Amino acid sequence: MENTSAPETALPETAPFELVLGGRYRLAQVIGTGGMSTVFRAHDEHLHRDVAVKLYDASSTEVARQESELSVLASLDHHSLVTLLDAGVSEDDSRRANRFLVMALVNGSNLRDRLRGPRIAARNIGEIGYDMAEALEYIHSRGVIHRDIKPSNIMLVDYGIKARRARARLTDFGIALTESVERLTLDGQTTGTAAYLSPEQASGKPVTGASDVYSLGLVLLQCFTRTIEFPGTIVESAMARLSRDPVVPDYLPENWKQLFAAMMNRDPELRPNGKELVSILRQVVIAESGRHKDDSTTFPSADTGSLIDTIPDEVLHRVTAMAARLFSAPISAVSLNENGVTRLVSHFGEQVEEISNDIDLSNSRPPSPEPVLILDARKDPRSKESRLVKGPLQMRFYASAPLTLADGRTIGTLSVINTNTYKPAPEDMASLQDLAALVVAQLELPTESLSTDASLT
After folding, report:
1. Which of 36, 73, 114, 212 is most exposed by smallest CB count within 10 Å?
2. Which tens digits make up the pLDDT trace of 6-46?
3. Catalytic residue among 57, 131, 148, 212
4. Catalytic site residue 148?
């Protein structure tokens, strides 16, 4: 459900699987965390089905926000939204009240995780946009403004029937604004996730449904570019969008360019409303379907012949995890770039999981053809001005090995990042280069020998 990370919350000390809320919901594993809540997979012992339970931190003082989210969710019922099933209050062993919401469990992944995998075909991006446009048309007609449209709040439902595509659902109404619920954010304050704020949100001005449309535009643009358009801290991100418009790639079809120009117009009054957006995206999906009549797989790779799309996710996830363990580091990443197409797969350890949403590992600079080793990033001229050093991550150590093909082209890097200074042994750097060579070997295998299953898990 919610993938925004947060500090540890004062949840009940009892092991989660021993907790039964409301006399029927037995908690299992954690599937997401939020600013003052944790989302669990749970089993409804009355109806014998799995559900998602959002358990608020008992020490949270934001009871008004909790009541607001409950009020919003209780008033909404739409196929493009995650459905509220129940709510209640349960006391822990210390007699602290733990509020909870019970929601339909979405089997699948969220769009943020999906963007770490193979490229998404333009038609499927249009279908995701269409589902979200329907969601916005519905909630805006009921006076609800979501205010936090971002990839991690868009769930991709896998029904397990090998459908042509997954359906997208909008979740997390924790900071939604309604006409009937008291405004909990003062005018002039910024609410939302920095990278996806509309210009009016970034400048602290009043927001309307047009703000959700702008944020959705940034999300759909990211589906094409594979990079966050306005990265950095909330100040850096806000200043960037107030000084320039998002860059829309020239290679996109004209209908997509026109759509993005409309959705991300700086003037909220000139953006399409929810109903208009549904109509526009319906036409976009029809146009894309005409270009891909023979394509019936779920989220296929774009038909670009790109080498970087041939390597399975599992290989990259294992390599990054091994690299992180090798250097006792919390972060490792593989970054690949070919013909303007970028693919990034990241590994985040527990040490930084709580701020992973605020970390942007994308890099527009060409990959170094030589290994790079930075022992203290604060002092090294190559890195001391980097947002990874100055931002929430506070990077101190960096090491990378190039991904160089047999023809001499360097198309990416395997990198390791630590929040502490670190001095690796010479054999560690050699091992990092060996792991990079394994990635290259997989890239250069004949494509028929690779697994290309891109279905949602």
Report:
1. 36
2. 333 334 444 455 688 988 999 998 887 766 778 899 999 99
3. 148
4. yes
